[in-house]
Amino acid sequence: MTTTSTGTRVIDSNSTDSRLPGAQTFAITGATGYLGSHLARRLHQCGHHVVVLKRSRSNVARIADILPDLASYDIDVQPFDAIFKEQHISGILHCATDYGRKDISRASIIEANLVLPLRLLETAIQHGTPFFVNTDTVLDKRVSAYSLSKRQFRDWLATLSTSIRGINVALEHFYGPGDDATKFVGEMLRRLLGGDPRIALTPGEQQRDFVYIDDVVDAFTLILAHHVNPVRPAGPPPPPTASLDCYEIGSGQPVSIREFMTLLRRLAGQNHVALDFGAIPYRDNEVMNSQARITPLLSLGWKPRVSLEEGLHRTLVFEHSRIRSEHRCDT
After folding, report:
1. DSSP bridge partners of 72
2. What does pTM read for this prediction?
3. How many CB atoms are located within 10 Å of the residue 227 CB?
4. d(CA 33, CA 73)
5. Residue 273 · residue 133 · CB < 8 Å
6. pLDDT 10s digits, 268-302
7. In whole angstroms, what is the distance from residue 246 CA to residue 184 CA?
8. Strand 165-171 vs strand 131-137: parallel, antiparallel, or unpaired?
9. Are strands 49-54 and 2-3 parallel, antiparallel or unpaired?
């Protein structure tokens, strides 16, 4: 895959995307978000039909240029059953999530991360949809209401995998140009470039596995290619069992938050900013070592292609461009 000077991503002929057989119809929740929009754009560029499942109040800016070419439904207005009757859906990519970062109730988090996808899963089963891909987190369920609700849906998907091919994709900390400022990398970038003289941090000893957005999308498309038309052994099919296909996406090379922030500060050219490690205590049930188990993906032929330093450099280039554009608008 290459990127033009305007930021448009062009699919190379030897990309893993080309392994997807024929034109498929994929329904995507969260297609207006960061990950979902990248997946929608990639699948659209590869000639697949994308069905966007969003809310009527969703901000569609990330996919505005391709939205006329997609099928779009407001799921707070249109019932799931009617959508499935109109579209012959090959598979579901569930990317929508509520991280619970704002002042939001636990009930609202459960509604977004458990009840809504469970309703979608049940409808997909009723209509004979071949598979359901769930975007999950590697966080322990005890860390937050978000991680607990994600674990609860994963358990439901595993239970119902006798009736549909369930695929669970747990993500490490993915990042890239244009990501939300509320996420860790985006917030740290904006604070470093925004003139903050000091950034309060935890002691920074926890290990995190950062993975660039292009590598994440490559992994998803390879997983889809593997499961759309799987090779089945000869003979009668085995009896159905509740078996969930599980993958983790990360670089496989974790770094400490202290190392990460020191690198980011250097790449941003902001060495004068004080990184106050230890000013914030670790949260309850903090995960101290998080590393993706990428062996299943490696066996499919995937490997991360963008190093942490290169990925952060690309993200910084985008952020500098965004800041210059905002300054031009202000003047």
Report:
1. 52
2. 0.89
3. 15
4. 15
5. no
6. 999 999 999 999 999 888 899 999 999 999 999 99
7. 25
8. parallel
9. unpaired
